[in-house]
Each structure stands twice: as C-alpha cells, then as structure tokens.
Amino acid sequence: MQNSDTPSAKPGPAATSFLSRRERFLAQIGNGVAILVASPELLKSRDTDVRYRANSDLLYLTDFAEPETVAVFTPHDPEHRLTLFVRPRDAEKETWTGRRHGVEGARDRFGADAAYPLDELDERLPKLLEPADAVWYSLGSSQEMDRRVTSLLARFRLSRPRSGKGPWDVRDPAQVLDPMRLVKEPAELELMRESGRLAAQGHLAAMRMARPGVGEWELEAAVDGTYRRAGAWGPSYPTIVGSAVNGTILHYTSNDRVVEDGDLVLIDAGAELGNYCSDITRTFPVNGRFTPAQRALYDVVAAAEEAGIAAVAPGNTFQGVHDAAVRVMVKGLADLGLLPRGDVDALIEDGGYKRFNTHQTSHWLGLDVHDAGGYREPDGSPLRLRPGMVLTVEPGLYIPDAEDIPADFRGLGIRVEDDVIVTETGREVITRDVPVDADEIEATVGSGVMETAGR
Ligand code: GLY
Ligand code: MN
Ligand code: MN
C-alpha cells in the first residue's frame, strides 16, 4: 500500500491485507483491548537522530510508520475497532523533521476508525479499556506505557466492585501476533521475494568489484548502495564484510580492513524492502581463486547448506534442518582431518564439531531479520514447518587460528546463507540470484568493471 502523500519507492501489501489481518487479530483477543506502542526514537549522539524504523507489530497491523504512535484495538466496539493516537500535523515541526500524516491521515489513509492527537491518550484510554476483560500489552516495551497501564489497572481494581467495569489481566499480544507473523500471506511472500532478489544484487555488486587491495568498507558501500539505489530502506541489519580472520567474527561490523591477496571475504548482508528483510551470506576468495584448503572447506559448507535446504518441507521439523546441515559438516570436518575419523553419529553425539560450528542453522525471517515466532510447538516438541513460513539456512564453519589446526585451515571463516519459503510441496529458495557454487563464484569475483577508490 502506498500510504504516503509523497511519492515513494516503497512497495507494500494492499490495504485489504491490513484490514483482514486486524480482523484475525481482533477475533483472537476476545473481550480484551490491545495496545501497541511505537518504538522510541533513538539518538545517534547529542541531538542527531538514528533513522527511524517503527516496530514490526505496529507495522504489521497498521502500516503506520511514524514515531509517537499508540494503536488501541477494541474488538467489543463494532464501529471503533482501531483507534490511532498520533502526532498531529504541525507546520513548524514538519519543516524540521518531515511530513506527518496527522489525525486525518491516520483515519483516511490508514483506515483507523478513530484518530486523536497523542496528548489525548490519557483522557481517552480509560474509556477504551473499561469494557475489556484483559489488556493485551507487552509489559516492558515502553516505560511510559507500563506506568500508564499499571496505574489504570490499579484504578480499575478499586472501582470495579461498584462499577463492574475494567480489565483484570495483562496479556502479551505477542501470544497472538507471533504465530500470525510466522506464517506469511501471499502479499508478504511477494515482498520477501523482491527483498531477496535485491539482496542478491547487492552481493553480486560486491563480488564483481572485489580484488586484492579493496577495502572491506568499499564492498559494504557496493552492497548498501545497491539497496538504496533501488529505493529500499537500506540494509536490514548492519552489513558484515569480514575478510580473512574477520570472517570468523559472527557479527563483525567495523569493516575497516584492507583485503589482501589470498584472503577469503565473508559478506552477510540483506535488504529491507517494503519493511521485509532478506539475509544472505556468501564467502569468496578476493582474488577469484580458492586455495585447495579454502575450496575443500567451502565445498563442505555449501553441501551442508544444500542438505539443510533439502530438509525444508512441510511436516519436517525446524530442528531437522539444522541436523541435516550438521551431519554434512561433521562428515566433512572428519574427512579433512579437522575432527577424528569415525562414526558420524558418534562424532555428532560427542559435540566436538561445536568448536567450528558455533551457531544454529536457521532463524525465522520477515519484518524483522530474526523474525517473530516460536521455535517449538506449544507442547514443547520440535516445531513442524508449514507452508508460508520463511527461514534462513546458514551453516558456517569457523576455524580458530590455533596451533593444533593444520596451517592451511587456520583462521578460515565460511558461511553460506539463503532465504527459503516453505511451500505446499517443499521449498522455494528466494536468494539465488547470486551464486553459491564454488566455480561460479570464482567466475564472478572481480568480473565487474566498477572502479574502486582505494584507501
Ligand atoms: N545477519 C544475521 C544473521 O544471519 O542471523
Ligand atoms: Mn545473515
Ligand atoms: Mn541469518
């Protein structure tokens, strides 16, 4: 939905998706009232803002992306199911920080049944809560709202004996929203495909401009520039460009080293497009040629990724994806002499591989890069995959620079990551516009004509 009165490259699901989502949410909170609060604005330093990004639950239900917003959902009131409290239009403030939709925009463009300036919240909230049996609010998400909700509950506790009105309980809307967000609608999947395609283009741009002497930061600029040029919000998390041993640091972001001949480069980067995140990792030799040790280890990780992806299918478990990838990595590590030779099951049981494989293989993906949703069924058993779920598959091996490791393998960090939709019949990988195959990677690295600036 183009919910903006200014031209925007931002795509989004149609207004009808938000309406039907809200109806599904309202149906599940019964006689409760739900309150969602916009994330606070953050300062980078002194009075400089960090670019604002609304919290995903609020975006999911309203598409309203402005700070200082409170959404109140009242299923008991057929005419006022969504009330938005927003920043009012303000000609002077808008010349400093940009256009606001205001109260009218909240109603007319975002389909709120009622909208008021935020400073009317204290006056109006008690009436909205009165008919409810529970307040659905994530305690701890806003100190200000925590105080408001607890003091209202205390007030109702005193008045209820005479009035018979007011909620008893506080419940977390995540209980309803997490499972909803876990299974994506067709319009969401379409945005995720688009986000995945764009992320792949960013990786391709970096791979093509890579050469010994390039700065990690230049590769970052190629990735992030690709996203911004396409009109995306930007990277869905700070882009990771780790060369040589920096590739073994999972959330490395300083990106300030000059890449040397013979180094591997690990780039972990995704785009945020139409609020939806992608998340890709590729690892490649900066000079376009893997050394034999790099190639051998790379092929193990790539095969592990294939095995993990092949395990994505409805009815299979989330844990099964990890197990499939781990099995291939353990066998590969043993074949390369990095683990003792022996029965693969025994080696998995022993856990020695965890020295090299330090993280899980997957996480949910969506409006957040580590998206909402549980990893277990309600009874605690391993979660079964269902069509519409979207997860990453990202096995990695990180070899310490240690005396007991054969010299050729020391300090290698390799991860391969793609984004996968669970379909009715199996899976759809949405991030393969950038190669994974080692030969194709070698053919791509340095193939571009982009000039790099050097240090
Ligand atoms: N880039 C964060 C992750 O892969 O989970
Ligand atoms: Mn990643
Ligand atoms: Mn990831």
Short description:
By secondary structure, this protein is an alpha+beta fold. The protein has helices at 15-28, 56-62, 91-97, 102-108, 121-129, 143-163, 174-182, 186-209, 216-229, 292-310, 318-335, 344-350, 438-444; strands at 33-37, 43-45, 48-49, 70-73, 82-86, 114-117, 134-136, 169-171, 234-235, 240-243, 264-269, 271-273, 276-277, 280-285, 390-393, 396-398, 413-415, 418-422, 427-429. The chain has a 6-stranded mixed beta sheet with strand order 6-5-4-1-7-8, with helices on both faces. A 3-stranded antiparallel beta sheet has the order 9-12-13. The chain has a 3-stranded antiparallel beta sheet with strand order 10-11-14.
SSE topology:
Layout: H1 15-28, E1 33-37, E2 43-45, E3 48-49, H2 56-62, E4 70-73, E5 82-86, H3 91-97, H4 102-108, E6 114-117, H5 121-129, E7 134-136, H6 143-163, E8 169-171, H7 174-182, H8 186-209, H9 216-229, E9 234-235, E10 240-243, E11 264-269, E12 271-273, E13 276-277, E14 280-285, H10 292-310, H11 318-335, H12 344-350, E15 390-393, E16 396-398, E17 413-415, E18 418-422, E19 427-429, H13 438-444
Parallel strand pairs: 1-7, 5-6, 7-8
Antiparallel strand pairs: 1-4, 2-3, 4-5, 9-12, 10-11, 11-14, 12-13, 15-18, 16-17, 18-19
This protein binds glycine and manganese (II) ion (2 copies).
